[in-house]
Design goal:
By secondary structure, the protein is an alpha+beta fold. It has eight helices and 26 strands.
């Protein structure tokens, strides 16, 4: 298994840590009466009521999850106060069968199983509280495909008891194993397989416009942090192009959260190519509004260019708008140049003087509860005017007119960027990715609400990174 940075060939990656999943299970366990299986098991519930079966009672504490590999997980339950096993022992001296009660408090029961993706079913809704059901309802009503990622109890690979001196006693081991096998058989049956532990409910829309950020399909993977298991992650890998066959994409195990990032509960990455496409379209629409501009083009390196018409006797010029990322800051750099001819005494052009104008605008990516992800204008730098200091500068005529035209055109581009409408507007272009309170396409039952923060443009990975914490 090779870990990778970024989103690979996927468009959106949400990575959730093992620690977050355990918090999720804890919240589900404490908040819901109807779970994947009861919190208490005994002879009656496991139908172990023959004369040869040991008498027992198991009170289960909050389960603990451990990611072992791709879709391979181990879940461990600790037995709480009142858990017991009653063993029958033969007293050779009295020739009588005696009952011996063994406390199982502190013992653990572990089993390995898989994660499975399936269509959302009505029984899954029983595991959601009313607020989660309400959050899911709009997707159900608007032709989204709803899928669940859950723990597959039908495919339990192994189960073990651990703890206490009695766990090494042969007669106790036999009794333990019989209870384990009965419990596993019960969990594999349809009665409890229909009520799984949900890791996530994902809404996708296969007919979505590929220009939007709406996921059209998803798969999952896991990434191991062997020296910091709590930072191992469950990854939701999503595509947004309805023509992409996600099943033909390579397996991907993104190393989105590092082992030393103890405070990060989840991280969302958006592929930079879609970010760049939206910004390119926004700048292209803006630069087309500049008076006297023509030949608008994208040069393929985060730069939109155009030519400028001749005006007031000059030779026209050139304008460009470039963007780059550094941390949470996106910088727009506007550059414009106009060329003034230098006329000799015989009305011939004897030289040229080039005038240059440069200006920077900076936006900061921020998160808010009501607006999701947005770019907030941080700074508009001054217009820097320079020239090539030509020998003929003293003979140039109309320099101030040239400066006026150059200044007006950069000002027009700046105004156009700030006045864009709809999805092209920089401070709202990603509203349909992160709307309202968090990432709405994925519901993590029991996790309360994600609060995303600290969006960062990574220079090397070049994917937008957004951290998340719980409220």
């Amino acid at each position: 298994m090779v870990n990778n940075k970024g989103t690979g060939e996927y468009d959106i990656v949400l990575s959730v840590t093992q620690g977050t999943l355990n918090n999720q299970l804890r919240n589900m366990w404490l908040r819901r009466d109807q779970l994947a299986f009861p919190k208490t098991w005994d002879n009656e519930s496991l139908r172990m009521d023959s004369i040869d079966d040991p008498s027992f009672k198991l009170n289960l504490d909050v389960p603990q999850l451990e990611i072992l590999g791709q879709n391979d997980i181990r879940i461990t339950f600790t037995f709480t106060e009142g858990s017991k096993l009653v063993l029958l022992k033969f007293n050779r001296s009295t020739k009588q069968v005696m009952e011996e009660e063994v406390s199982l408090k502190g013992y653990t029961f572990s089993m390995r199983t898989n994660m499975v993706k399936t269509q959302y079913q009505s029984t899954h809704g029983d595991l959601l509280d009313s607020s989660e059901q309400e959050k899911l309802r709009p997707f159900q009503e608007n032709q989204f495909t709803i899928q669940s990622l859950f723990m597959d109890f039908t495919n339990v690979k192994a189960g073990t008891f651990e703890g206490g001196a009695e766990s090494s006693n042969p007669s106790s081991v036999m009794a333990f194993n019989s209870v384990i096998q009965a419990l596993i058989n019960k969990l594999k049956g349809p009665e409890y397989a229909a009520y799984p532990f949900l890791f996530g409910v994902v809404a996708t829309q296969p007919l979505s416009d590929k220009g939007n950020w709406t996921p059209t399909n998803f798969i999952n993977s896991t990434t191991l942090q062997r020296n910091a298991s709590e930072q191992s992650t469950l990854n939701f890998l999503m595509t947004i192009n309805p023509k992409t066959d996600i099943n033909k994409l390579p397996e991907y195990y993104p190393e989105v959260i590092q082992a030393n990032e103890k405070s990060i509960r989840a991280r969302l990455l958006l592929h930079h190519k879609h970010m760049d496409e939206k910004i390119k379209n926004a700048i292209m629409q803006s630069i087309r509004k500049v008076p006297g501009s023509y030949g608008h083009r994208y040069n393929g390196t985060r730069c939109v260019e155009c030519s400028l018409e001749k005006k007031n006797g000059d030779e026209g010029g050139y304008m460009s708008a470039k963007w780059e990322y550094e941390g949470p800051i996106m910088s727009l750099h506007f550059h414009s140049q106009r060329t003034l001819p230098i006329w000799g005494i015989l009305s011939a052009v004897v030289g040229k003087l080039r005038l240059y104008g440069d200006q920077d605008m900076k936006y900061e990516a921020q998160m808010s509860d009501d607006k999701g992800l947005q770019f907030v204008e941080k700074d508009i730098g001054p217009l820097r005017r320079t020239d090539d200091d030509s020998f003929w500068k003293k003979l140039a005529r109309g320099i101030e007119v040239g400066w006026t035209a150059l200044t007006a055109q950069i000002g027009a581009l700046q105004q156009a960027v700030n006045s864009l409408d709809g999805s092209y507007r920089l401070n709202t272009m990603l509203d349909n990715v992160l709307q309202g309170k968090g990432f709405e396409y994925i519901l993590l039952p029991g996790s309360d609400v994600f609060q995303f923060q600290n969006p960062t443009f990574l220079n090397e990975i070049t994917d937008l990174q957004i951290d998340a914490v719980f409220r």
